[in-house]
Amino acid sequence: MKPFSNAYDAIKKLFRKMFGKKDEEQLETTEEELAEAAEKEAEQAAEATEATETAEQEAPAKEGKKAKEPEKAIEDVLASIADEEGIKEEKVSKGELEEQKKYEEEVRKRAERKAKREAEDRKKEAEEAASAKDEKVKMVTDPVTGEEVPLGQLPAEATFLKKYMRIQTTSDDVLVAINSILKHPDMPKNVVVLGRNGFGTVKVGEDFARSFYELGIVKSDKIAKTKAKQLNKMGLEKLSALKGGCLIIENAGLVSFSKLVEVIKDSAPENNDYVVILTGEIDSLANFFDENDDIVDEFIYLIDIHKIKERGMMHFARGYVKERGYKADKAVYDKLKASLKAMEEGNIDRFVARIDEVIEKCDKREAGGEATKNILPEDAN
Questions:
Q1: Residue 187 to residues 214, 268, 275: CA-CA distances in angstroms?
Q2: At what angle do helices 330-339 and 310-323 cross, to 10 degrees?
Q3: Nearest 5°: phi and psi at 261?
């Protein structure tokens, strides 16, 4: 069998399949060209076998290089026939190029934001460590006036937000928002909850909504929750029953600008007078506000929970169990900690659902007896 005859036969079949019988004459010419290339390669291979012993040891590498040459010849023939048949190389459209540039720009922006956040986190952590060491009153910037003011304490009525006070990276944002809203009641009270991709942050929004009612910031305890894509298609007449309450928009980076403008107008005190709470992935929301800066002034308060790691989640768990009126020992929390491995890092919604499940098992176990609300390790299985 001639060298490369298998590849040669395969190319012949490919040509027939591509171009049919009408091109058999042209195909025969191509076959002759390929045969000559194969014969020439065979002669070169024969000459190589007569080399010295040292050359024989190097032959595999040389032969590997030679093996690519007839393949290149075949590719050239294919390209030639393709040109003659009008088969052109697919070109990238202008739209695709623009999409690629847009994607690359988005990657660049996200990298810049990440680097900036990490630098700010390091600075904040250093300031917190220094403040804790010298025990001075911590000063923060009031988001409304820009003035330096004492951080302050969480009002006793904000019971649903107390568990976040255990999380160092988030507690300051919560305190700043609540105290500033109480200090400036005539300013917009809307809140943005920033998380990572995959975070569940609706629970945080609900805790703010409930605390707003307890603090008298809103007049109604009604809470409406909707995903951004649903809101985009929804008529706002459905929100008339929400008057005086809170609207939580999930995955808010996907809401259309025009729809959010409608919502802001509808939520104004002279209309339905409700607070808007946006929750979603930090970069999506950053993009939204970058592209729609006309609406930025309506969202003064940012709650950044994207930095919550395992330790913060366990602080949160202890606070949440206490908030629900239950007790648990270290063995229970160790099992809850193990369950975090099956979740996205910092997904508060999923973690709360897991703790609720454990509490429900505790309630069933204690049903009919004394309700001690003492969670046991087997409840966390």
A1: 19, 11, 11
A2: 130
A3: -60, -40
Six-digit token string for 282: 């930090």
DSSP conformation letters of 63-109: HHHHHHHHHHHHHHHHHHHHHHTT-PPPPPPHHHHHHHHHHHHHHHH
Give the DSSP letter of residue 89. Answer: P
Q: What is the pTM of this model?
A: 0.62
Q: What are the percentages of helix, strand and coil residues in the chain, rounded to 5?
A: 65, 10, 25
Q: How many beta carbons lie within 10 A of that of residue 89, not counting itself?
A: 7
Residues in the chain, total? 381
> Distance between CA atoms of 3 and 63, rounded to whole angstroms?
12
Q: Distance (Å, rounded) from C-alpha 109 to C-alpha 167?
A: 28
**158-193 residue pLDDT tens:** 999 999 998 877 899 999 999 999 999 999 999 999
pLDDT, tens digit, for every residue of 280-326?
Answer: 877 778 888 888 888 888 999 999 887 778 888 999 999 999 999 99
Q: What is the DSSP letter of 244?
A: T
- Quick count: other Cβ atoms within 10 Å of Cβ 122? 10
